[in-house]
Design goal:
By secondary structure, the chain is mainly alpha-helical. Helices cover 74% and strands 0% of the residues. InterPro entries: BPD_transp_1_N (IPR045621), MetI-like (IPR000515), MetI-like_sf (IPR035906).
Length: 308
């Protein structure tokens, strides 16, 4: 176990190194720089001072070395678009906002999606199965911005039940959470149904039924744990998606989350903000991959982590 964890940690640090290096040089390959438009009308000396402040007057390789040295000290740099705001400070302030909205949506989507998937599998080719699959198809095919606009129009404009956008009140959670959890419900409903149908045909399930166990006992004791395994794999990408995949929802509902800053930093060539948020997302993803491995072991004791 210890060897396995150490080996995975080594892979994680190597992955982060590759991500940081690749992102650094790709950002520099984009035409222009973050100061080109902002400092266009400034005197030459003032412009040179700005470039020197952010280290953009140095050779590319030297810039890379300075960035990596600062990164090892935990310094992610300072945003160019938002002067005076450090990247670490921005991540610390905005990631809890994204986690609150996206985390609640993920929990609701996971619980409801698993329940609907189980229902569809137990009532295969009957009306509950058709209803669940219809919901799943809608959740997968309808774009987020269409669903968000529809909810804003119905619940905010027509019914006046909820605010169309904003942040700071509990009711501001409702619409974005509904929008974000809809796709999660659809995804898990499909995965759980498929896994349940595979497991229900296994010999040990038939044996459990032959022993006289009730259908509830068969499903909860023998079917669910094995049917959940393929869905656990989705958790890593789903959790990362809470932060980096919700920028459309955050923009539509004026949520000050990290996804909004991530996209705006790319559009504005904000090197340090893009680098910092990419490192955050990549680090979160590799950590969640390791956590998923341990989750496998908890759900199915037959799985053991080795260094092979």
């Amino acid at each position: 176990m210890a060897k396995y964890v150490l080996k995975r940690l080594g892979y994680m640090f190597f992955t982060l190194f590759v991500v940081v290096t690749t992102t650094f040089f790709l950002m520099r390959a984009i035409p222009g720089d973050p100061l080109s438009s902002m400092a266009r009308n400034l005197p030459e000396q003032t412009k040179a001072n700005f470039y020197a402040r952010y280290g953009l007057d140095k050779p590319l390789v030297e810039q890379y070395g300075i960035y990596m040295k600062n990164l090892l000290r935990g310094d992610l740099g300072e945003s160019v678009v938002f002067p005076g705001r450090s990247v670490a400070q921005t991540i610390a302030q905005t990631s809890p906002v994204s986690a609150a909205v996206g985390g609640l949506a993920l929990v609701i989507g996971l619980v409801v999606g698993v329940a609907l998937g189980v229902l569809a599998a137990l009532f295969k080719n009957r009306w509950p199965d058709y209803v669940v699959m219809f919901i799943a198809i809608l959740g997968i095919t309808i774009p987020v911005f269409v669903l968000g606009s529809l909810f804003q129009y119905v619940f905010a404009v027509k019914l006046h039940w909820l605010p169309a956008s904003g942040w700071g009140l509990k009711k501001n959670f409702v619409l974005p959470v509904l929008v974000m959890c809809f796709g999660t419900i659809a995804t898990y409903a499909r995965y759980i149904k498929s896994s349940m149908l595979d497991v229900l045909g296994q010999d040990y399930v038939l044996t459990a039924r032959a022993k006289g166990l009730s259908e509830f006992q068969v499903v909860t004791r023998h079917v669910m744990r094995n049917a959940m395994l393929p869905s656990i794999t989705l958790l890593a990408s789903q959790i990362v998606g809470i932060f980096c995949g919700a920028f459309i929802t955050e923009t539509m509902f004026s949520i000050p989350g990290i996804g909004f800053y991530y996209v705006s930093s790319i559009n504005n060539n904000d090197y340090w903000m893009t680098m910092g948020t990419t490192i955050f997302f990549a680090g979160l993803f590799v950590v969640m991959q390791l956590a998923v491995d341990f989750a496998y072991m908890l759900v199915d004791p037959r799985i053991r982590l080795t260094d092979d």
